[in-house]
Automatic annotation (TrEMBL):
Record pathway: Porphyrin-containing compound metabolism; protoporphyrin-IX biosynthesis; 5-aminolevulinate from L-glutamyl-tRNA(Glu): step 2/2
UniProt cross-references to NCBIfam families, sorted A to Z: hemL, PRK00062.1
Family according to the record: Belongs to the class-III pyridoxal-phosphate-dependent aminotransferase family. HemL subfamily.
First-tier enzyme category under EC: isomerase
Swiss-Prot/TrEMBL GO biological process terms: protoporphyrinogen IX biosynthetic process
Source organism: Simplicispira metamorpha
Transmembrane portions of the chain: none
Cofactor section: pyridoxal 5'-phosphate
Protein name, entry field: Glutamate-1-semialdehyde 2,1-aminomutase
UniProt superkingdom: Bacteria
Alphabetized UniProt keyword annotations: Cytoplasm, Isomerase, Porphyrin biosynthesis, Pyridoxal phosphate
CDD domains (UniProt xref): OAT_like (cd00610)
Length: 436
């Protein structure tokens, strides 16, 4: 396509004049991979079409929510009906209760839930709840885990044991992150030493159990088990950030995956988003009744939101949850994702390209490394320059993956065996060019 016929470039230039960087979320700018972002005009099923009319097989899925694919008939019907009844009321609705009941029914660790509008809002509120419920200030997070852009969570690890955070964003005062302890993911020794030093002051440990902002890195079963034990021992709360994992890796979320190997396992607080909104702005946090009753108006931990429990968003979320509860849904989704991942691994191996990949449910990730990494430091060893070539090779041929080395991918129920086969075939061609 010539520059004169490419509509994406002039749209991007126009956007940059009125929006910082031309985008409303940084990774969309293609800064990491280079080139011009694709401006999407429409989507249906497993596909998106850009401003030029080019079709892409979509493995972003709006960064996770579109587990049914775009434009699912049952979801569209529910949203259209709700929109006719009213966009927003600022008052309770029955649908909020129904969605809360559905979440509680699917996730045994949750007895009460509060609906909000974004994953960042849910994560921020969960931290406030943990501090309010325990009367403590310190929080533990892990390098490479992203919990939204709340100030106290925009930190990275420094040198040494249990280093208190240094802000990774301008505009975050040092005083805001002074109580945030950042540890290495999957490092049991660091975790134990942090509790030995600060156990009486730790309000919570917050973790992405399958970290999608390191592409796809699992917390090991021994690591999750030790987190749970130490939190219980020291009176801290264990917070599972399932904004990305929840109802995506399994019907019961990542916590149900870990419960297979850790009998009786439950987190104290769960943070959710993405799939529970079905593509609408909706998120939630929930936990045991004794913890959640610290929230206003019952308790002294304040949180509020004008659009919380929005009637159109809850309709979209409820319709999505109804569909993913159908018998065999996750078995079929998992099989499709596994076929894709195994095919990519085989295609890379055939061309001698270092490559490793993993998946759970409808979520997957891969690295241009011979073995799967276990933490942020090893993730950073992946070949960024080669990834950029891979990304653009796929994009030019009609396969849309995340424009960043450290972001997970998503398969939907709308992806057909033909879509998966086409993707693997295209990837095989791109791997050939990477081998040279």
């Amino acid at each position: 396509m010539t520059p004169s016929t490419d509509r994406n470039l002039p749209l991007f230039e126009r956007a940059k004049a009125v929006i910082p960087g031309g985008v409303n979320s940084p990774v969309r700018a293609f800064k990491a991979v280079g080139g011009t972002p694709r401006f999407i005009e429409r989507a249906q099923g497993a596909y998106m079409w850009d401003a030029n009319g080019q079709r892409f097989i979509d493995y972003i899925g709006s960064w996770g929510p579109m587990i049914l694919g775009h434009g699912h008939p049952a979801v569209l019907e529910a949203v259209q009906k709700a929109a006719l009844e009213g966009f927003s009321f600022g008052a309770p609705t029955e649908r909020e209760v129904e969605l809360a009941e559905a979440i509680i029914d699917l996730v045994p660790s949750i007895e009460m839930v509060r609906l909000v509008s974004s994953g960042t809002e849910a994560g921020m509120s969960a931290i406030r709840l943990a501090r309010g419920a325990t009367g403590r200030n310190k929080i533990v997070k892990f390098e490479g885990c992203y919990h939204g852009h709340a100030d106290a969570l925009l930190v990275k690890a420094g040198s040494g044991l249990a280093t208190f955070g240094n802000a990774t964003s301008a505009g975050v005062p040092a005083e805001v992150v002074q109580h945030t302890v950042v540890l290495e993911y999957n490092n049991v020794q660091q975790l134990e030493e942090a509790f030995a030093l600060h156990g009486a002051d730790i309000a919570c440990v917050m973790i992405e159990p399958i970290a999608g902002n390191m592409n796809f890195v699992r917390a090991s079963v021994p690591f999750v088990k030790r987190c749970r034990e130490l939190c219980t021992q020291h009176g801290a709360l264990f917070v599972f950030d399932e904004v990305m994992n929840g109802f995506r890796v399994a019907l019961g979320g990542a916590q149900s995956v870990y419960a297979r190997d850790i009998p009786g396992f439950e987190p104290d607080i769960t943070v959710m988003g993405k799939v529970i909104g079905g593509g609408m702005p909706l998120a939630a946090f929930g936990g045991k009744r004794a913890v959640m009753e610290h929230m206003a108006p019952l308790g002294s931990v304040y949180q509020a939101g004008t659009l919380s429990g929005n009637p159109v968003a809850t309709a979209c979320g409820l319709a999505t949850l109804r569909e993913i509860r159908q018998p065999g849904f996750f078995e079929a989704l998992s099989a499709s994702t596994r076929t894709l991942v195994d095919g990519l691994v085989a295609a890379a191996a055939a061309e001698g390209v270092p490559f490793s990949a993993d998946c759970e449910g409808g979520m997957f990730g891969f690295f241009l490394l011979p073995t799967l990494p276990q933490n942020y430091a090893t993730v950073m060893q992946s070949d960024g320059a080669r990834f950029n070539r891979l990304f653009h090779g796929l994009l030019d041929r009609g396969v849309y993956i995340a424009p960043a080395l450290y972001e997970a991918g998503f398969v939907s129920a709308a992806h057909t065996p033909q879509d998966i086969a086409e993707t693997i075939s295209i990837a095989r061609d791109v791997f050939k060019s990477l081998a040279n």
